[in-house]
Design goal:
This protein folds into 2 domains: 64 residues, Arc Repressor Mutant, subunit A (Orthogonal Bundle), CATH 1.10.10.10; 158 residues, Chorismate lyase-like (Chorismate lyase, 3-Layer(aba) Sandwich). It is built from 7 helices and 10 strands.
């Protein structure tokens, strides 16, 4: 479609109109837009022109197009602050987001060899396994499995982790955390986690592996969080005496 002199192309006007509706909340984060054919009819343009407009919204990060499922308003991005030592939920609440936590499982059981090594406990020893699902912007966004070493595990069995953060509970029982070592890498959703996060298996995710240490250098918590790549951005501030980042190959 060729625009007349002095007039913006039609797709730009459609993109501006859809942008205004999204920003006004007429289409909420995570909500599906009407089908493309319906939109093209409403605007009186061809599918090609409409798709140009949608491409503009996609480039601006306002929509996400999911093959076979439709076009959705992009959720506001989670900001994971690398320089902080907080739980995921605490980070998000501090940013003004409404976060819902569901406890999927909680039990004291034998730690795997890998987890035992990270917690620096003898092979075969038990620890508390806490599995949670975080919902953000009305949809599941983070699946998290935490292992807490004994003797703290026995004191956490009855705490309400739907409203309390793990770090907050540890502080409440007198365990002061001092630092954490964390690795964040790209990954793909396995089928079990995909079902929990309601995304297709193989979708892009970020995988965070974190070991948290007490003041006396004891490893207290081992975490693995699987985060939808479409809903998280990682932020940090660099300073001469501040956070140090190490870049390395994955694998």
């Amino acid at each position: 479609m060729t625009a007349s002199p002095g007039f913006a192309p039609r797709y730009q006007a459609i993109a501006a109109d859809l942008t205004a509706k999204i920003r006004a909340g007429e289409y909420a984060p995570g909500e599906a837009l009407p089908p493309q054919r319906e939109l093209s009819t409403a605007y009186g343009v061809t599918l090609m022109t409409l798709r140009q407009a949608l491409r503009r919204l996609s480039d601006d990060g306002l929509i996400v197009q999911r093959p076979g499922r439709g076009t959705f308003v992009a959720p506001p991005h989670l900001a994971y602050e690398l320089g902080s030592l907080h739980s995921f939920a605490t980070d998000l609440v501090k940013q003004g987001h409404d976060v819902r936590t569901t406890v999927l499982a909680r039990s004291v059981r034998r730690a795997s060899a890998r987890t035992a090594a990270q917690l620096r406990i003898p092979p075969g020893d038990t620890a508390l396994r806490l599995e949670r699902l975080r919902e953000f912007a009305g949809r599941p966004a983070i699946h998290q499995v935490s292992w807490v070493r004994q003797p703290h595990a026995d004191r956490l069995r009855d705490r309400d982790f739907t409203t309390e953060s793990l770090y907050g509970v540890l502080a409440d029982i007198g365990v002061a955390v001092a630092r954490a070592a964390e690795t964040i890498r790209p990954g793909l959703l396995d089928s079990a986690t995909a079902a929990l996060l309601k995304e297709p298996a193989g979708s892009a995710v970020l995988v965070s592996d974190r070991v948290t240490y007490a003041v006396d250098t004891t490893a207290v918590v081992v975490d693995r969080a699987t985060i939808l790549g479409s809903m998280m951005e990682i932020r940090t501030e660099r300073a001469a005496t501040g956070l140090s980042l190490r870049w390395g190959a994955t694998g």
